[in-house]
């Protein structure tokens, strides 16, 4: 609105200037005031009397308006008209934006998008407009609704197409396993969705969806368990044997690891890995969560691989739950972590001091690690249902030392004391933990709890 206000102010000034100069010119010249003028000017004035306007003189006979100025004046007048028309088109765009389907970004669903792609005919948010520009103007031509001027043809494209029609065309065959990005998703998911849609046209031509074929081989950079160095490894996904394997060397016949796809999760975590295409694989190995950190130099390679995992998982679920719809099952393909971050945590004894740990909340599992990229967490806490004694409370019990902004988590077996550096962080952690323990357990949750209980019998993974 502020920008619109500024635009109307500029318009007002231009109009005023154009009006005053125009009035000056039309007022004509009085003979008395022309006597002192040089003969050449007098010649022009005589012509003016017979219907010609003198160039370069105002009504006082002074050369205030030069030929150049008149041309500029005309430009201002023209600019005014075109700006006024542009403002009209902008208003029309703003109205179109309120229409059903256009009020959210065509790509990520963000509310009130303020950019448009006028050849595709979609309303998009600023961040998605950046990804559209990365496609090149031969694929998408973007403009800001507030800052740029739109011509009549561009406006009519937006009017004729719009988000609903464009979606029907470009997302006609989007497979159920494909994860549509939302506004909070990492850039790699948003950009690859946009590239898949308009550059590769994957959702218009089913044969281009390589991730639905049930087999994929890709080279990814994998963080070493011991040395923490990223090295390139061959990863092979196979739906027929239901596994993901990775090989240290191409020549190796035996994989370094073989993971059941139905037990595998993948989530993007670019910040933690330090790469825009960074991701984390997790699966339970011998009763403990194993983390594998990977990235690819190619955004499309890692996103295709992610979708391939989702496609295989969906097909397995469809076999396991024949009466359930694809849409319902598609909610259970991969999980993002509910929250991650650093917190202080005490041991189980009142004499134990606080330790600074990295926490990852993965559904009902709260894991803590010394380093966010550790291959195994130091401990894992299962979060049950509040009716079974699980609770989150602000502060710490009387007689216990509080570190920073403290709060207490009570599980069936013990209490955990946590501390964070900001009150807002405490509120956020408490809110998300509470939401988990307010949710009744599913049969899958119970089996996860059983796994973690078994873990506690081993010394290394003892929760402390
Ligand atoms: Zn967007």
What does this 3D model show about the protein?
With 464 residues, the protein is α+β, with helices and mostly antiparallel strands. The protein contains twelve helices and 17 strands. It has helices at 2-26, 39-49, 67-97, 126-134, 152-160, 162-170, 187-199, 270-273, 299-320, 326-329, 423-437, 443-455, and strands spanning 115-117, 122-124, 142-144, 215-223, 230-238, 243-247, 257-260, 265-268, 278-285, 288-295, 339-346, 354-362, 365-369, 379-382, 391-394, 405-410, 415-420. The strands form three sheets. Strands 7-6-5-4-10-9-8 form a seven-stranded antiparallel beta sheet. A seven-stranded antiparallel beta sheet has the order 14-13-12-11-17-16-15, sandwiched between helices. A hairpin with a 2-residue loop joins strand 12 and strand 13. Helix 1 (2-26) packs antiparallel against helix 3 and helix 3 (67-97) packs parallel to helix 5 (152-160). The longest helix is centred in the first third of the chain and has 31 residues, at 67-97. It is globular. Residues 105, 107-108, 110, 124-125, 127-128 line the site of zinc ion (ZN).
Order of helices and strands: HHHEEHEHHHEEEEEHEEHHEEEEEEEHH
Portion in helices: 25-40%
Strand content: 15-25%
Low-confidence stretches: 1-58, 61-71, 455-464
Distance between the termini: 55 Å
Spatial strand arrangement across the major sheet: 7-6-5-4-10-9-8
Q: How many strands in all?
A: 17
Mean pLDDT: 83
What about the largest sheet? 7 strands, antiparallel
Whole-angstrom Rg: 33 Å
Bound molecules: zinc ion
Coarse shape: globular
Helix/strand/pairing class, anyone? alpha+beta
**Tally of contiguous helical segments:** 12
GO molecular function: GTPase activator activity; phosphatidylinositol bisphosphate binding; phosphatidylinositol-3,4,5-trisphosphate binding; zinc ion binding
Subcellular location: Cytoplasm
Keywords: Cytoplasm, GTPase activation, Metal-binding, Repeat, Zinc, Zinc-finger
Protein name: Arf-GAP with dual PH domain-containing protein 1
């Amino acid at each position: 609105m502020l920008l619109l206000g500024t635009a109307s102010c500029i318009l007002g000034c231009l109009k005023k200037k154009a009006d005053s100069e125009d009035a000056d010119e039309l007022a004509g010249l009085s003979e008395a005031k022309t006597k002192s003028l040089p003969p050449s000017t007098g010649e022009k004035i005589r012509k003016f009397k017979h219907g010609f306007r003198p160039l370069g003189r105002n009504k006082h006979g002074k050369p205030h308006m030069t030929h150049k100025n008149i041309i500029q004046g005309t430009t201002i007048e023209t600019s005014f008209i075109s700006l006024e028309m542009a403002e009209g088109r902008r208003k029309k765009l703003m109205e179109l934006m309120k229409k059903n389907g256009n009020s959210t970004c065509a790509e990520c669903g963000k509310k009130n998008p303020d950019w448009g792609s006028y050849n595709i005919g979609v309303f998009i948010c600023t961040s998605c407009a950046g990804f559209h520009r990365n496609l090149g103007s031969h694929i998408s031509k973007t403009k800001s609704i507030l800052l740029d001027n739109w011509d009549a043809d561009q406006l009519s494209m937006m009017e004729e197409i719009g988000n609903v029609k464009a979606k029907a065309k470009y997302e006609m065959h989007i497979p159920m396993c494909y994860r549509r990005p939302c506004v909070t998703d990492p850039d790699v998911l948003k950009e690859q969705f946009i590239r898949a849609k308009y550059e590769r046209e994957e959702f218009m031509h089913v044969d281009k969806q390589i991730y639905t074929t049930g087999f994929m081989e890709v080279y990814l950079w994998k963080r070493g368990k011991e040395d923490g160095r990223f090295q390139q490894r061959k990863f092979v996904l196979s739906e027929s044997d239901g596994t993901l394997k990775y090989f240290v060397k191409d020549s190796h016949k035996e994989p370094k690891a073989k993971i059941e796809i139905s037990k595998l999760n993948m989530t993007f975590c670019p910040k933690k890995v330090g790469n825009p295409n960074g991701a984390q694989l997790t699966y339970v190995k011998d009763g403990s969560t194993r983390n594998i950190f990977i990235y690819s130099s190619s955004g499309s390679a890692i996103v295709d691989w992610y979708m391939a995992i989702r496609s295989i998982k969906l097909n397995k679920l469809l076999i396991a739950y024949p009466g359930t719809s694809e849409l319902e099952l598609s909610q259970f393909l991969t999980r993002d972590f509910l929250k991650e971050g650093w917190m202080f945590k005490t041991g189980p004894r009142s004499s134990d001091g606080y330790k600074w740990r990295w926490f990852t909340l993965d559904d009902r599992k709260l894991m803590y690690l010394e380093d966010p990229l550790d291959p195994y967490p130091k401990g894992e806490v299962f979060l049950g249902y509040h009716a079974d004694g699980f609770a989150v409370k602000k502060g710490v019990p009387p007689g216990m030392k509080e570190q920073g902004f403290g709060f207490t988590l009570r599980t069936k077996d013990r209490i955990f004391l946590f501390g964070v550096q900001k009150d807002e962080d405490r509120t956020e952690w408490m809110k998300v933990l509470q939401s988990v323990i307010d949710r009744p357990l599913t049969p899958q949750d119970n089996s996860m709890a059983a796994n973690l209980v078994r873990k506690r019998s081993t010394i290394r993974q003892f929760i402390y």
